[in-house]
Amino acid sequence: MWGGAGEPADSYYQVRPECTDVPKTRFKIKPGKTLSVRKWQAVFVQEGSLHIGKTLRRIRRGGIHPSIRGEVWEFLLGCYDPMSTFEEREQIRQRRRLQYASWKEECKQMFPVIGSGRFTTAPVITENGQPNYDPLVLQEINLGTNSNGSVFFKELTSRGPLDKKIIQWLLTLHQIGLDVNRTDRALVFYEKKENLSKLWDILSVYAWIDNDVGYCQGMSDLCSPMIILLEDEADAFWCFERLMRRLRGNFRSTGRSVGVEAQLTHLSSITQVVDPKLHQHLDKLGGGDYLFAIRMLMVQFRREFSFCDSLYLWEMMWALEYDPDLFYVYEAHQCGNEKTEGLKGKPKSIKQCGKYERQNMRNGGKSAEGPLPISVFLVASVLKDKSYKLMTEARGLDDVVKILNDTTGNLDAKKTCSGAIKIHKRYLRKAKK
């Protein structure tokens, strides 16, 4: 895959010259394999509907050209129905942009730094809702007046005791800022403070509207590619929101456990089936809970691949998992069940589904919580690939973590996906017995 001729994609995601320790990108734009601008335009019929099956196969073969990656992702993530027309999609786009602008304005009324081109990295209030007059806070919320932030605090305290939800949201903003400062900083894109601010704005608005999960560490890694690929901030927000529909369960905490732990339990079961000796070895080392794999699942392998290769991996994952009903499922959830009449699309054809989804449909490969995400099988594929090294060199959990960390920049995204599909098929077959 990587040895043939192809155009390097690094120029689309430039790295700062002083950052010499970033993983090398393996993905190349290959004529005849990568989904090109011409091939993408050719899959639309006159009114705008999309032959999604052809698109999925092309993405699996060679990924998506960086110049159209954002608009293709909007379909893969369920932002739009592939059978919709150009006009229908434009109406949806404009409606969503207005909705985002409304939410952002609501947030700005509570904290005027939102949308100002700045962001905060220090807690603006205490846990009981009182203003924090730390000099750094006053400096960060100073919006060009002589008040040095005092006007904001006067307005804040004049409203009386703050609502618990507002306190929680305001306490989250500085954590988002700290994470934004650490996210993809090797990229030239983030040398501009306006881009950092855009990332902070999107995550802050999302934290306000998601009453269940809010913001958790790791979400900045998931959101960052969206604002790089989609110029309009609202479009980037909705792409991120759709991605979080898939992943928010990973971040949901009950106080006693985190949602991703359920996937780790499934990972344990899968490894027991496909590589029982490796599972026994990991269990002896105290790693039978597979917590060492939590980062891979939480941020979807962002740390194991270069920036460009992680995008390639994501789009292959989504193409393999693709379900044409995604748009209707998400719209129904957003509108409320009482408003979903007329949203249901045409019965889906198995040809419109990704390969992984087709395997699930044919074999009934679903747990009580629904189908397992392909990311669980991707982790199993990485473990299988490193099985010999783990078996012979790991003498403790620290060794396991080190061996897996050493995979950074050394994994082949396409090979990992192919391995995941094989393990999934094998797991379904053995689970039936």
From TrEMBL:
SMART domains: TBC. Signal peptide: none annotated. Residues 63-321 form the Rab-GAP TBC domain. Gene3D superfamilies: putative rabgap domain of human tbc1 domain family member 14 like domains (1.10.8.270), Ypt/Rab-GAP domain of gyp1p, domain 3 (1.10.472.80). PROSITE patterns: TBC_RABGAP. It holds the Pfam family RabGAP-TBC. It comes from the Eukaryota. This is Rab-GAP TBC domain-containing protein. It comes from Arabidopsis thaliana (Mouse-ear cress). The lineage of its organism: Eukaryota, Viridiplantae, Streptophyta, Embryophyta, Tracheophyta.
